[in-house]
Amino acid sequence: MSHHSYEELAAVMGHWGEKPRRIRPDIELAGSPERTAFRVVMETDAGRLLVLEEIPPGRHDHKRTISRTLELLHRRKLPGICPSLRSKTGEYIVSRGERYWQLVPFIPGHALSRPAWAFEGWRGRALGGFLIGLRKTSRNIPFFRPAHPFSIRIYIEDFMKRLKQHNPEQLPETEPVLRFLEKGFMAAHDSLPVAFCHGDVHPLNVIWGKRGIRAVIDWEFLGYKPEMYDIANLIGCIGMEDPDALFGELVASLFATLSAGGLITGPVRTWLVEFIVALRFAWLAEWLRKRDHEMIALETVYMNLLTRHAGMLRAEWGLSDESPAGG
Predict the structure, then answer these.
(1) Which domain of life does the protein's organism represent (predicted)?
(2) What is 116-317's CATH superfamily?
(3) Which of 69, 98, 123, 160 has the fewest CB atoms lying closer than 10 Å?
(4) 71-86 core/surface letters (b: 16 or more CB in 10 A; e: else)
């Protein structure tokens, strides 16, 4: 189960003044295990459940920035935020030998029923409410520079160069998608408004209650990005679960909530479909990295499906009838 002994884990938890009663490998954790080198639920003598996480090498400074950001958003009253705990000396991250650790409260939740969740309207309202709250509470985050936002345009250009060199067999499926984006989106990208984003919002990065969000997790990619980034990634992931869900109640209620909250701006109306497509290149890169051939095939089919039905999606979502790129 673990390459760490109970004694070692107990000694680490002592930095937070916590005494563990036992390790709880029976408790499944939400979110990606790749965000940590090791993680496990620990039950304390007081019956409290805490998640002890070992930070991957070279990531402790970034994890510290995430913790500082989450604590700030928590102080600003954004619901669904679960900051890591400070140690007895006030630190988010504790070093022990050559290893770095953080401690986070364990939050129980309800598992998603797949793929039924992708059609449940209340989830769209909850996710839309979170994104509205994030936009309101994340102004002037001091730990990031809005003048240097993430660029999916540059990412795609670099990705295609690597693809031609290492995976040329994927070019017949990806080059039509790139041509779709080059009709106007790539040129317009750098002028898109910027906002602070979670960076990986999708339903599997949420700890769900019975009818709402208990916590939003996995903030590894947080930072300033084009303002529609989280919306585009979320909708793209819903459609990847089931393309029919793009026309379902979850997405419809998400749009209604975001529109009422002022997040469906002019640039969003014009370029959202293209941004959804653009972000799928990052997911394709992930499947290629993992050599997951089934997901590579599904992703490229999905990317081309989105481009072919771009006009239908704009009409369904009440966006601009046609982007400046056409389609």
Answers:
(1) Bacteria
(2) Aminoglycoside phosphotransferase (APH), C-terminal lobe (3.90.1200.10)
(3) 98
(4) ebbeeeebbbbbbbbb
